[in-house]
Amino acid sequence: MAPRLRLAAPLLLVSVALLLTVVASDDDDGGGDYAHCEGVVKGWAGSVADEEEDNDGGDTLSLRDLLFFLHIPRTGGRTYFHCFLKKLYTNAEECPRSYDKLRFDPSHPDCKLVVSHDDYSFMSKLPSERTSVVTILRNPVDRVFSTYEFSVEVAARFLVHPNLTSAKLMTSRLLTKSRAVSTLDIWPWKYLVPWMREDLFARRDARRIAKVRSSHRINAYDVEDMVMPLHQYIDDPVAHEIIHNGATFQITGLTNNSYFNGAHEVRHCVRKHPDLGRFVLEVAKSRLDRMLYVGLTEDHEESARLFAHMVGAQVLFQSGAANLDIKEDQPIGNDSHSSTLDPEDEETNEHLNSTRGLQNNRALSADTTKDDHPKGNMTVGKLMEAYEGCISKLRKSQSNRRKVSLKMVEEANFSKEARRQVPEAILEQIISLNNLDMELYEHAKKIFTQEHLMLNAQHSMPDTKGWIETVCSSWSCSPWKVTLLGLGVTISIVLIALALTTRRRTFKLKV
């Protein structure tokens, strides 16, 4: 026995040595990987800072030749497109397939408007020195909820078909025949909807095989035998790739839809080493600071008012369509309740999954893009009035369509009340998974407050319409230049008055 032990001892020592070598090697690789990732992320952030410093056009609050609406999904941007921008820009001024086709050539000579889910890297295709960027941010937790709900809503429309193969064939035929653009063409839904659609069919097939009906659940976000539960949805690799910290990655141009070839590596490094996210976050904050306008979904009324004055007024000035009305808008109607479309009911007119859907889509498009106030006679006040009327129509049409879509998964009855029943642990997980977006949203709120204060300062000025017309007829001005000029004139008058008063007192003393 002793000789065997003596032989086994060296083998054991060799095994331990090999194991320690492997562990050490893994540690070295890990350290090397972090150093590599740190270099990649820092290098990208540095190059972005240098590039944007070189392209700094000065006044970021003045509208430039081209407006790029960077639409972060589930923030209400579709409403702004239909109810604001369609009133301000003609079809000829929209870049070709501006909203519904993400990969297009914006070199058209009359192109003045780009509205897209493309990320910030799309600026590489635009004349950056002549482009103003606007966007809207939303509370990240609500945005994740809304993304989940919308994925289910759109995917559920396919359940009218007997099986997944039939659904794909019919959709392909309809889209080919109509040459329309489907949600399946648009990022990020071209990834999220097929993923959810396949899951819905798999769960329906499983219920049929088991010959059972889904039982009623208290929590609409955990109807497991009918719909992918929310807790499973947020923990899936697809969600990590596309949804979590999506606003930060979109504003930094690092989504999986990016025009920047190195986006995947930077994104991978940030996810693998979360502390490197601080470099990405700083780039996102800096870009928000440079934007013409930043809105908040949660404060729709004030966001719309700011957009009308900060963006709409300048579009009207540049087009020569109207004189700037910087007075406070009067309340429209007697209803104090906001007529702004609920964020949960957004964007449902994008989808053409059936003949009936196509007809509804055309009707909705014609209804909401109708120009009730010709651009040649438009003011900020009339723009807001047109926006309110458009929103009312969108609310009715899209709310009805949402209800019809979710009938196929009726036990997943999503609502704000149902959201409150989601366990706190899931909410905390969403916050943790979207830590960059949470901090970016707080930064956006600070910018929004500054915009609000600037607009209030502008409204507190006396009636200056006459001299504004005179100045702006020969000077390319924005509302903010007008405000600064007005303040300067006011201060000058006060100083002159003080000087004259002092001189008179001095003269009296001499006498």
UniProtKB/TrEMBL annotation:
Record keywords, A-Z: Glycoprotein, Membrane, Signal, Transferase, Transmembrane, Transmembrane helix
Subcellular location: Membrane
Sample GO molecular function, one term: heparan sulfate 6-sulfotransferase activity
InterPro entries in the cross-refs: Heparan_SO4-6-sulfoTrfase, P-loop_NTPase
Record-linked SUPFAM superfamilies: P-loop containing nucleoside triphosphate hydrolases
Record field: transmembrane: 480-500
Compositionally biased tracts (Polar residues): 351-367
CC terms in the record's Gene Ontology section: membrane
Protein name per its UniProtKB record: Sulfotransferase
The organism of origin for this protein: Leersia perrieri
